[in-house]
Amino acid sequence: MFSETLIKKFEQIETPFYFYDVQLLQKTLETVKNASEKYNFSVHYALKANSNNRILELIQKNGFGADCVSGNEVLKALENGFSPSKIAFAGVGKTDKEIKIGLNSGIFSFNCESIPEIEVINQIAHKEGKLAKIAIRINPNVDSKTHKHITTGLSENKFGVNYEDLPELLKIIKPLKNIQLVGIHFHIGSQITNLSVFKDLCIRINEIQDIFVAQQTEIEHVNVGGGLGISYENPDEDATARFEEYFKIFADNLKLKPRQTVHFELGRSIIAQSGSLISKVLYVKKGNSKNFLILDAGMNDLIRPALYQAFHKIESLTSDKQDSVYDIVGPVCESSDVFVKDFKLPEAQRGDLVAIRSAGAYGEVMASAYNLKDFAKAYYSDILQ
Ligand SMILES: Cc1ncc(COP(=O)(O)O)c(C=O)c1O
Measuring from atom 12 of ligand 1, which residue has the nearest CA? Predict the structure, then answer.
C-alpha cells in the first residue's frame, strides 16, 4: 500500500497525520455506483464518517447524495455541492435552529425519530411557510449482531419509533398541515459483517410496509440506512467492502410498492479503507511482563479502540527486523489510550513510522484536543505523490 517514495515523503511530515488514498476512494466510489445503479438504488454518503472537504468533493462529483446528522453537516454538504434534493437529515435530537436549516435548504427528507419531533417540525415549518418532507425512522427490532455501542435497531436503543406504535403515530400526524410523509427510514447499526442481518431487515420492512397499506398511507421511498462492515484485519486484501452482495440482498428481498425508490446511507464502507493514521514511535519501553511501543498518536487522534475496543491493523513502515510483541499505546494520560495489546510488529526503535490502517471512517471526525494535543493534519495521495 505504501511505496518507498511515499514513505520517504512521510518522513518529511510532522506526525501524527492522516493520509488518504484518493485513488482507492475513487475506485470504491465506482464500485458502489456500479453495484447500486444496477438496481436503481440511491446512495447518500454519511458525512458523519468523514467530512473533509476533499473527500466530500470527490464523493459529490461521483453523483452521491448526502446523509447528515446535524445542521452543520447539512451546511457542509451544501457547501461541497451536494444537491439539497439528495440530502437526508437524521438525528434523534434536532434543534430548532437545525430544523430551520433543513427547511430553508429544501432537503430530500427529515428522518424523524419521535412524535414530539414531528410536531415541532410541523410548527416550525408552519412559521417558516414551508412544507417539510419527512421519513419516519422506524426501530425494526432487528439484531445487527455488531458491537453493542454501534447497535441501533433494537427496541432498547434510543433510535426511531417502535413499529408497533405506527398506527397511533399515523393518526397523530395525519392532521399536521406542514408535514408531508414521504418515506420510511431504518438504520440498524454499523460495522455489520454478517450480511444475513440485512435480509432480516428486509423481511421486517416488508411487514412494516403492510401496516402502511392497512392505513391507506402511500410511501414514496424506503431508506435502509447504512452499516455495511469492512475488514479491519485485512485492509489490503479486502480493500473494497462486499457491495455487490450487499445491494443484491436488498434487491432480492425487499418487496417494494409501485414507484417506490430505495435509499442507502453508507459511511464506513465508502471511506474507512482509504485512510491511515501515520504515527512515529516515541519510545520503546520495557515493562516487567510486556514491551510497550509508545506512539505520538493517541486516543485524541483515533478514539475507536478506546471507545469501542475496535481493532485497527498496525504496520511498520520503516523497520524490517524480526517481529517482536508489543502493547501499542498512545501518549494520552488515560489507561484506555491503547491501540492494540500483544501485537506482533517488526522490532521498533525511536523514530520508526507506523501506519494505523482502516482509519478513514470515524477517525479524524472524532478527534479531540484532549490533553491539549494538536489536531492531526490530513494529506492526500494525489498531492503527495
Ligand atoms: C442514521 C445513520 N445513517 C447512516 C450511518 C452510517 O453508517 P455506516 O458508517 O455504518 O455505513 C449512521 C452511522 O451510524 C447513522 O447513524
Answer: 226
| pTM of the complete model | 0.96
Calpha distance 1→17 (Å, rounded):
17
Assess whether the C-beta atom of 190 lies below 6 angstroms from ligand 1: yes
Q: CB neighbours (10 Å) of residue 374?
A: 11
> What atom in ligand 1 is closest to the CA of residue 190?
10
Domain ranges of the chain: 4-17+273-384, 22-272
Pick the CATH number of 4-17+273-384 from 2.40.37.10, 3.40.50.20, 2.60.40.4070, 3.40.50.720: 2.40.37.10
Residues facing residue 167 across a β-bridge = none
pLDDT in tens, 105-134: 999 999 999 999 999 999 999 999 999 999
Q: Give 189 Cα–ligand 1 centroid separation in angstroms.
A: 7
Domain 22-272: CATH class, spelled out: alpha beta
Note the pLDDT tens digit of each residue in 169-216.
Answer: 999 999 999 999 999 999 999 999 999 999 999 999 999 999 999 999
CB 74 less than 6 A from any atom of ligand 1: no
pLDDT single digits (tens) 41-78:
999 999 999 999 999 999 999 999 999 999 999 999 99
- Helix ranges (H only) for 21-175 are 22-37, 53-61, 71-79, 96-105, 115-128, 166-173
Ligand 1 atom at minimal distance to the Cα of residue 150: 14
